[in-house]
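hey can u check if this looks right to u? its 314 residues, i copy pasted from the old doc so theres a chance i mangled smth
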Amino acid sequence: MLPALPPLRASRVSEIAETSAKRPPPGEAPRDRLRAFGVVRQWLGTNGDESGTRARRTFLYSLAIAAATVGVVNTINVITDQRESQSHSLAGPLIAEAGSWFTLLLFFWLPWLAWRFAPPQVRPRWKLLIHIPTALAFSLGHVGGFVLIRELVYRLAGAQYNFGAFVPQFLYEFRKDALGYALFFSCFTLIDHLLRQQALIAEPARARTFDIRDGAKLTRVRLDDIFAITSAGNYVEFVLRDGKRLLMRSPLSALETELGRRGFVRTHRSWLVNAEQVTALTPEGSGDYTVELQSLTVPLSRRFPEALAKLRHE
């Protein structure tokens, strides 16, 4: 016969109940981790959806343009430095400019990540301030990198490289790097805009409309005239630009599947919003937001972090 277990004290019962209440339901923690991972992939531009593909192409095109443009500038510098050098040796200018070209591209990811976090249209606007410390970090990496390469190559050649006093030399280089950073930022923005326009031109006119069916009645509307879609029992309700609200018998999940590839984002279990029509995001505390679309406001639940990431970068 098993021995009787001692009774639990009231304080111990309360402690166990508190711990159980704080513990997430089975499967919720892994699901939240997967959602967080999806947010990171979407932000970096490595996910497979349309925005991720566009971000990846923007980065690769910008990197190629930067490599070519900076390479031309470095080549001109090599020719100029060789002419002005007393020894007319090509080795010194070539080592200096090649190291600068390599380290600048090596740290190219810094302005890219800052642009992904705070593009020109980001809200709130104060997020653009992230570019100040990022430009400084970019310049430090660039300058420190090419100084290290020059010192290493000169040492292997049995010579000594003297960069000079670091602070005044760095401030001189920083002015050039800040200009380069601004050009990279502009390049990201321009290429992203061109890719968006290319997608719109390539998209058939039919794909820019949607048929709202209510029984035998069919109403064809433009996608950019649909602000949001909300569930209403067995129906969904379309909120249109002109204030009209049209019903259609369909589950919201089916429209999410159909319209998710065409710019609509699930922000709440009862709401889909047109990402292109969002004018502002307002934090409400505890991770929730309010999505503003002109005269309409829609909730954004913390349960949909992918939607928040996408709306921030649209």
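The CA atoms of residues 266 and 272 lie 4 Å apart.
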